[in-house]
Design goal:
Layout (H helix, E strand, L loop, with lengths): L2 H10 L25 E3 L8 E6 L2 E6 L4 H4 L3 E3 L3 H9 L3 E5 L10 H12 L8 E3 L7 H8 L4 E8 L5 E5 L3 E6 L2 H16 L5 E3 L1 E2 L2
Parallel strand pairs: 4-8, 5-6, 5-7, 7-9
Antiparallel strand pairs: 1-10, 2-3, 2-11, 8-9
Helix pairs in contact: 3-6, 4-6
Length: 206
């Protein structure tokens, strides 16, 4: 995958096949799902494993924290529906993160995010990129500024689990420790996978 390919996608605004970016962190996300059995968050607060059905295909998804802990995440300038809608209306996921972040202090969370997103590639393809894909800042800015690009930024900062939206399509997933970053990451994934913030579907595994 090179810049010209991404540029053509932006121009055409159409993805007809699944493309996987071969860099350290490869990601992908999903958008719409068919609920078969409704289960409330509260009933399964201590679970960290779900199976969801996306357009008739089941996906087994395990999280790095429990539903209960994920729901402690603070949302700023956004909500579940907004996150899901933005994902649904975009075709490119642009990851921003500190490439030097230690694996045990947050790097594992970014890798986990990539793995969970990649799971649903065959159902809901998105192009996923990071800075390493592009040759210069001009190329990076072109993709970031496209209205079909969703920017997801991971920050090991001063705040506890937080998801903050800046601008129209830029989301910051922040935590001040690995545990807090895991909470925010799980919360973001739940927002994408689950249409209703108070329910999720199919099967809950302990």
């Amino acid at each position: 995958m090179d810049f010209n390919t991404v540029k053509n996608i932006i121009k055409n605004k159409n993805i007809k096949k699944i493309l996987i970016i071969g860099f350290a962190i490869i990601l992908m996300v999903s958008n719409s799902m068919c609920l078969k059995k409704i289960t409330t968050y509260e009933e399964n607060a201590n679970k960290n494993h779900i199976i969801v059905s996306l357009n008739g295909t089941s996906y087994d998804i395990g999280f790095r924290t429990t539903i209960k802990d994920a729901l402690q995440t603070k949302l700023i300038n956004t909500n579940d529906e907004d996150i899901r809608k933005t994902y649904k209306n975009t075709k490119i996921v642009y990851l921003i993160y500190n490439h030097k972040i230690p694996y045990e202090k947050g790097g594992i969370t970014i890798v986990d995010f990539a793995t969970k997103i990649r799971t649903t590639n065959r159902t809901y393809p998105h192009i996923v990129v990071d800075d390493t894909v592009f040759k210069n800042e001009s190329e990076r800015e072109m993709v970031k500024n496209s209205n079909i690009t969703m920017i997801v930024e991971f920050v090991l900062g001063n705040n506890t689990a937080t998801i903050k939206k800046i601008g129209d399509r830029h989301y910051i997933i922040e935590g001040n420790s690995l545990k807090e970053l895991d909470k925010a990451e799980t919360r973001f994934l739940l927002a994408i996978f689950v249409p209703n913030k108070s329910h999720y579907s199919l099967s809950i595994l302990g």
